[in-house]
Amino acid sequence: MNQFLRKAGILFGLIMLLSSMAFAQDRSFCISLQARELYAPPVEKDFQLNKPFVPYIKVFLPEKEKATGRAVVICPGGGYGMVAFGHEGTRWAGFYNDLGIAAIVVKYRLPHGDNKIPVSDAETALQIVKDSADFWNINRDDVGIMGFSAGGHLASTIATHTRPPLRPNFQILFYPVITMDKSYTHLGSHDNFLGNDAGKELEDRFSNEKQVTKDTPPAFIVLAADDKVVPPANGINYFEALIDNKVYATLHVYPTGNHGWGYRRSYQFNQAILDELTLWLATIDKSKK
């Protein structure tokens, strides 16, 4: 009964909110992941440091006439020690909405060594999207996940560990942390996610290049060859594991960019990446035939 009332509360609030949004330029709203109700966060900053905060999603729905039914849940990066909510999150909303795709940005809690915390928040975000699919004009079978850097590790963890019906239908990874192998992971992400004294068994479990199966969702991976923060081998080895398992996947390696460009028009290859991503998104359905 409580769950029913919670859903009803969200829907009633959204009816009122979306009615007013029809006359407003900002078509976004936020939902608390814990209370699962409409939430008004404090002033957002691009990077949220170790200060505690309420985890939530910020939802950007396309105009109804443009909506394709597709949605992307976005996990910003930050080494599991902060959340780059702007250039690796909300700034992507316009790109997706123009394509008729709903964008849902997750402000997930930081793990401080407890890996279950951000994983739970990402899964809750997916659950809310699927529960709200009818009202948001979203196809439950066309919900993907996107992640940047450590957010790419979170996204690939969801893609390889989470089972249906929450498993995403596709994944988009920008300069991702993939492995927890200390020889080529991002050590800050490793320690924040697993703790300083994690054993090999735990490291292997969350080395997502080792968790790929034929059921892992299609993947778009992009990174820079000169990345000095997260070794390119993270994304490359994941791509090879996907191909070995005959998963529909593409890898784009650009010569420069280092790390963390997110959605920055000043980045030399920004438009090329947007064009490639747009093209790939149009091919996903065909890959399943």
UniProtKB/TrEMBL annotation:
Coiled-coil region(s): none
Leader peptide range in chain numbering: 1-24
Zinc-finger listed as a keyword: no
Keywords assigned: Hydrolase, Signal
Domain of life: Bacteria
Any one GO molecular-function label of the UniProt entry: hydrolase activity
Domain (Alpha/beta hydrolase fold-3) ranges: 77-261
A Pfam family annotated for this UniProt entry: Abhydrolase_3
The keyword Hydrolase is assigned to this record: yes
PANTHER family: AB HYDROLASE SUPERFAMILY PROTEIN C4A8.06C, PEPTIDASE S9 PROLYL OLIGOPEPTIDASE CATALYTIC DOMAIN-CONTAINING PROTEIN
Name of the protein described by the UniProt record: Acetyl esterase/lipase
